[in-house]
Design brief:
0% helix, four-stranded antiparallel β-sheet, 11 strands, mainly beta, seven-stranded mixed β-sheet
Length: 122
């Protein structure tokens, strides 16, 4: 089993940037494909980005493509989400997730962090 802890969230003005981190413990992160999801109040959890365990292939939701970048450092057991040109509609709790296969739906992933709040003011 792997434990995930997100960090790096906060309050930022529109157009600003944040870098989220997801640190893993318990098992080597390199054994898992990883995803980032977000959930705004009253909305379903939605896919943001995903990366294969090698780091060679990435996937993005259309809403964040060109603004967000997912990356990983398996030696540090950490996955990152670099978020630029933030918009108020990016406001949500952001979760990282680990799974045996990569996907864009929450049920694909087996392990989840507790989430970190990102608030973008206009």
């Amino acid at each position: 089993q792997v434990q995930l802890v997100e960090s790096g969230g906060g309050l930022v003005q529109a157009g600003g940037s944040l870098r989220l981190s997801c640190a893993a413990s318990g098992r080597t992160l390199g054994n898992y494909d990883m995803g980032w999801f977000r959930q705004a109040p009253g909305k379903e959890r939605e896919f943001v980005a995903a990366i294969t365990r090698s780091g060679l292939t990435t996937f993005y939701a259309d809403s964040v493509k060109g603004r967000f970048t997912i990356s990983r450092d398996n030696a540090k057991n950490t996955v990152y989400l670099e978020m630029n040109s933030l918009k108020p509609e990016d406001t949500a709790v952001y979760f990282c997730a680990a799974g045996a296969v990569i996907g864009t739906t929450p049920h694909t992933y087996n392990y989840w962090g507790q989430g970190t709040q990102v608030t973008v003011s206009s």
